[in-house]
Amino acid sequence: xxxxxxxxxxxxxxxxxxxxxxxxxxxxxxxxxxxxxxxxxxxxxxxxxxxxxxxxxxxxxxxxxxxxxxxxxxxxxxxxxxxxxxxxxxxxxxxxxxxxxxxxxxxxxxxxxxxxxxxxxxxxxxxxxxxxxxxxxxxxxxxxxxxxxxxxxxxxxxxxxxxxxxxxxxxxxxxxxxx
Amino acid sequence: xxxxxxxxxxxxxxxxxxxxxxxxxxxxxxxxxxxxxxxxxxxxxxxxxxxxxxxxxxxxxxxxxxxxxxxxxxxxxxxxxxxxxxxxxxxxxxxxxxxxxxxxxxxxxxxxxxxxxxxxxxxxxxxxxxxxxxxxxxxxxxxxxxxxxxxxxxxxxxxxxxxxxxxxxxxxxxxxxx
Lengths: 179, 178
Prior knowledge:
heterodimer; A: 4-stranded antiparallel β-sheet; 2 helices
């Protein structure tokens, strides 16, 4: 163990494609993407994107990038790998098209260095998000996973299943309360 | 002393909004893999703020940007802490010389490790510099902030969510030679 704190920091906004998440791996396997409006692949499905923190991070807000059609309900949260639910917005009506929607947490949550999943779930296939629906195999390859029937996101350990559809939504967490 | 060798990120001699220490990965990805090009400044007197990480203590001596073909008006560049306080800025400076790097010789400023925001503002709506033009929600998702009527750069900043599909590539260097 180090005797002194390390000088490690994270940018205020961590997204599903940040370097802390699948950014570099996804980029090397699949290149840049356009993240257009894409329909949610299955009602009540949750999509889990791994990310890691090398420094403490105050999570004050979760957010997601809505597509061209706002419909149904959304939940967004964070799980620790191998353990339990840490935070989530709760089921939230999707509002606003082609814009970022955010929910400020009632109480900020301090995430310590470690491995996590950020999770996004939606109630209907009429929901649209800015997402990449390119290359299912690369999405499996970077560690993404899914779970059925998870709206709202469960406050228990999540049970990862293999991705069935290529769908990498743009969403994440923030240490700010302004996106 | 540590019991084991520690991996220490010493950063680079140039800190860039478009680098790994900035938001380059996200911008490149959501921009369809396209690199930053030369783009027209989005609105007169607009200030834009882009987060960057400084991994170790550094002394910044200059900031710079890449000009496009259209030279117009004035620019200001500076650095803010994450509490919106202006640490250093150049002040209003004429936009000068097409298609080359324009450097701003700021007061030498020591930055401790942490999160900062590079600020840039212009009083022109026609000046061109190197920038990404990802859609507004994609800029917001990358952490970009904005402010209207903010030329020269104000202290403190009054941040609002990004209003433009525009993320300038602004760099700071630790050496006097750009």
